[in-house]
Amino acid sequence: MQPKEAEVILVNEQDEPLGTMEKMEAHRRGVLHRAFSVFVFNGKGELLLQKRASNKYHCAGKWTNTCCSHPHPGETTETAAARRLQEEMGFQTPLVKIFAFTYKSELDNGLVEHEFDHVYAGFSDGPVMPNFEEVGRSEEHTSELQSRETIS
Question: Is 115 one of the catalytic residues?
Answer without folding.
Answer: yes
